[in-house]
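Let's sit down with a protein and look at its sequence and fold side by side. Please make up or recall a protein chain and show it to me in full. Label the sequence line and the structure token line clearly, so we can match residues to local backbone shapes. Go ahead whenever you are ready, and we will take it from there.
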Amino acid sequence: MFDTEDFWYKTFSKTVDSAETCEVEKSTTDSLVIFINVENEDEDQKDRVVKKAVNNIIWLAKKTGRNKIVLHSFGHLSESKSNVEFAEDAIETIRDKLTAKGLETSMTPFGYLFEFKIHVKGESLAKVWKSI
């Protein structure tokens, strides 16, 4: 989880055949950017994993005073990966729950590789890692 000054991304190439075809280039300022990898073992405990992820993100949002959240599927965080459909559903569920809590939450398009630039703040809480 990163507390960012700026985050810019652009779709590069589609990696999941079932993903909606799109070309996106966006940027955001003063946001928490959350890199997420949904693991195979998460499939047996979706509700717990989603709840814990949401709670961790809300905790960091309160600590940093951030209201904007960007969720980014980043399968390179672990060798373990859930199936594609489960991962997308889990991340969308996290997004929906954060939005319901009043946070302005978005997702990078699922199933793509991206170009990106990220300017992370220097404080200790600007770089938080959680394993759920």
Observations:
- The domain at 2-122 is CATH 3.50.80.10 (D-tyrosyl-trna(Tyr) Deacylase; Chain: A;).
- The chain has one domain: 2-122.
- Residues 46-64 form the longest helix (19 residues).
- The chain has two helices and five strands.
